[in-house]
Amino acid sequence: MNSNPLLQLKHLIFYSLIFAISSCDMISFSANNSTKPSFLPPSSCYNGSIEGVQEYMDITFQEDSLIISGYRIIETLMKTVEMNGKGTFSGNLATLHINYLNPKEPEQVFQTVEQWTFDSISVRKNIILNDISVQMNAYRIQCSHDQTSDTTLYDTFGGFYEGYSVVSKHGLFGLIDSTFQISIPLIYKDLEIVNERSIVFYDPDSGLRGILDVNGDTIIPAIYDDIHCFNHGVATCLNNGKWGFINRSGNFIIPPIYLEVNLFKPEPSRHPFNEGLANVKNSDGTWIYIDVAGNQVIPDNYLFAKSFSGGRAEVYHREKWRTIDKNGNCVENCN
């Protein structure tokens, strides 16, 4: 079993939706009720993200309690889960019961108890499930249904990666640092996430993509149909229909000869190189593993090959899925 608490929590919350819990009693809790903090408005919207999960919430603050509604997008599963709940305040700490609902299977409801700590611009969520505790931050944004305009709020807040977060307002994207100072002005039609202090941008005039640094200076001009931010010191890009890898000078260190690179889009936090190896598709349709120099490090070719995690990867080989180690040895489902 994976020992990563975040992965355990994601599995428990999101995969447990397949088990119907349609008539559970709410977990009881006690709290010293007090009025909501004075810095909170009557209502507010929040946007948070963590490891391929996006969350959008609309919160109504009452004198001593709060009501939430919203949804959570699990990018890796291409699923949306609705969420709603109620809670009570004790100072700036709120304890909530949250219901998660898969709208495609409305009879399935999953419940958690969560503790949220509010300040004037954000909420730090402590999600507790089966003795696992994971923190997730969400930030105040402009509510789409709000008729007023608060110029201090962004329309979306992408969550911090390496101390930087993509934000948007009126359809334009920029980057802020951990002190909420603008690092890249909000002038771009699209920005992805920061990795190795690089970020992919989209040029609507050419329809192509390039890479900026976190200060907005161009590292790679927008000359590629698709590109991924730097990972293990290289960036993968789509050149004339095939994928290759370039360095920060824009020179190809692995030529564009591959039909696919397993980026697992649309989750931008997934990268082509995982644990030093990238899984790529050859011109003959088979998948191999290469290192950052472009060397094939496992001699076998596979019908499909997933990325490495914890020293293991799943491959489809000889008409079945198997698990291999980084030497190509089968370690699971080998018979």
Overview features:
eight-stranded antiparallel barrel; mainly beta; 335 residues; disordered N terminus; 1 helix; globular
How do you describe this structure in short?
This protein is mostly beta strands. It contains one helix and 27 strands.
Report on this structure.
By secondary structure, the protein is mainly beta. It is built from one helix and 27 strands. The chain has one helix at residues 5-15; strands at 43-50, 53-61, 65-74, 79-90, 93-101, 109-118, 122-129, 132-141, 156-161, 164-169, 172-177, 182-188, 198-203, 208-213, 218-224, 226-227, 235-239, 242-246, 252-258, 260-261, 273-274, 277-281, 287-290, 304-305, 312-316, 321-325, 330-332. The strands form six sheets. Strands 1-2-3-4-5-6-7-8 form an eight-stranded antiparallel beta barrel. A four-stranded antiparallel beta sheet has the order 9-10-11-12, with no helix packed on it. The chain starts with a helix and ends with a strand.
Main structural class: mainly beta
Largest sheet: 8 strands, antiparallel, barrel
State the helicity in percent bands: under 10%
Distance between the termini: 22 Å
Low-confidence stretches: 1-5, 11-31
Helices and strands, with pairings:
Layout: H1 5-15, E1 43-50, E2 53-61, E3 65-74, E4 79-90, E5 93-101, E6 109-118, E7 122-129, E8 132-141, E9 156-161, E10 164-169, E11 172-177, E12 182-188, E13 198-203, E14 208-213, E15 218-224, E16 226-227, E17 235-239, E18 242-246, E19 252-258, E20 260-261, E21 273-274, E22 277-281, E23 287-290, E24 304-305, E25 312-316, E26 321-325, E27 330-332
